[in-house]
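User: Some background: our group keeps a shared notebook of sequences we're curious about, and every so often someone picks one and asks for a predicted structure to add to the entry. Today it's my turn. The entry only has the sequence so far, pasted here. Could you supply the structure so I can complete it?
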Amino acid sequence: MKTNPSNWLLLIVSLPTDSATARMRIWRALKSLGCGALRDGAYLLPDRADQQQELSDLAAETLREGGNAWLLTVQAQSTADNEAYCSLFDRSAEMTQFVEGLTRVRRTLDSLTPADINRALRKLRREYDALCATDYFPAQASAAAQAAWMDFIHVAEALLSPGEPQAINAAIVLLDAATFQGRLWATRRHLWVDRVASAWLIQRFIDHQARFAWVDTPADCPPEALGFDFDQARFTHVGDRVTFEVLVASFGLGDDTGLLRLGAMVHALDVGGTFVPEASGFEAMLSGARQRARDDDQLLQEISLVLDALYQHFSTESKLAPSPT
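Assistant: Of course. Here's the predicted structure to add to the notebook entry:
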């Protein structure tokens, strides 16, 4: 939701005319921060801690280059002025342009090789992350861009990881984790969001001695294994719940707020849904780890640390949240 700040950061910089290299370097840094230009040498940002540090660093760099710099906290004199300042940060045109680019690439996905799809994902992710980093007042175009991006990822991952399960309509039976210890669990190799999060959940909360088999196709699932996140698996999508959420419900973990919020993030990334701010960061880390990991065992080991941290974050944040009045 778009909210207007009460305070703004104003950086005024002046560099010697013979400092062309420094001038370009500082200008590029200001552009990457998404600063609004009031005039040449006067740049505006919402008053937030991260932005204040960034502008302080640029002010210090300007002074080192022999220039002058002043970093001020200012207030708009009227509502109209404040709205005018906010309009300097309207990213609607850029978000719309990004969606148009996504649409063009999506039309070609079926004809691309897996390597080309991964390259397109990396390039578009960099563009999207850069846009979001300077989208200080998200509006309707931002929500549309996020929905298009999540949809694009879903389509690309379906091509990269064929065999995504189709949801079934069935009752979720409550199970006793004590009877599921030391078991072999199986899912499709080349782990992505739902599968890697489900494997983490199994290891951390259900079967601490779990062993895993990563199979090429569901038909390769060993007969003694507990399959998850593929059609006909013991644990798969049920109704509108993804496999992670089904496992949470199946083993009576639904009172754990940290797991519920992790489930919402996995759901958003796997099939779309309610916006979760942490989702894009987790997706970027998973993508990077998957490119670097030698196999799915290493990938699970690395991403488990990320999921541990996110679980702690979600659990702690929920305890600190104010009670509704």
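Suggested note for the entry: The mean pLDDT is 90. The first strand starts at residue 8 and ends at 14.
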